[in-house]
Amino acid sequence: MVHIPDQSDWGFRFANEKPIKPIKQLIRNLEGTAANSEGEFQQLRLYAESLISEIAGEKPRLFYVRRQGQRKGKNEEIWELILASDRSDFPLPERLQNLHKTLSLQGVVNQSGKDGFEILSTRLLSLEGGVANDFALPFYLRLVPNFKHKIGVPPAVWKLITSRIPLWKKPTEERLAAWKAFL
Asked: Which of 56, 57, 103, 148 is 20 to 30 Å from 97 at the Cα level?
């Protein structure tokens, strides 16, 4: 069984570049296509933040963190946080249980961690998407709005993730062989 680190709070915010898209994605995914995802940006942002807080901010949740790639040089990476759906001791939030889905958040983290997890995209995955694999590490997280709490991603997390898991790329036979050699 994989060791799950103690609970940690990570600050999040919607990325500055085109933030409205992931906000509207999240609202439509969780509330349905008929949900009103139109309105003033600030209202939509606050509503999307409240949805994330409902799912992963009120109490810690088990996420699998996967490295997706580098961004803007060596000091920033794109990571994906997938809410675990394969553990009975870490049940999904009721909203996701009712949808029979899990949540994926893709975002940017910089090496210092000070900006928190900057959300680039959100999507719902089938429950099979939230299953542990060798390309991700489990983290017991509580996601809180960065602008309110002024916390980022702990810098030690950067070192742990970048030293323990390779960048995720669509598996090919060659990549799988390289990963097995890495292990």
From this structure: 148
For each of the chain's 183 residues, which pLDDT tens digit applies? 456 667 889 999 988 766 688 888 898 889 876 566 677 888 888 889 999 999 998 889 999 999 998 887 678 999 999 999 999 989 999 999 999 999 999 999 988 888 889 999 999 999 999 998 888 899 999 999 987 767 889 888 888 888 888 776 655 666 667 767 766
d(CA 38, CA 16): 18
- Determine the Cα–Cα distance for residues 65 and 146; give it in Å rounded to an integer: 19
Task: State the pTM of this model.
Answer: 0.85
The Cα–Cα gap between 183 and 181 comes to 5
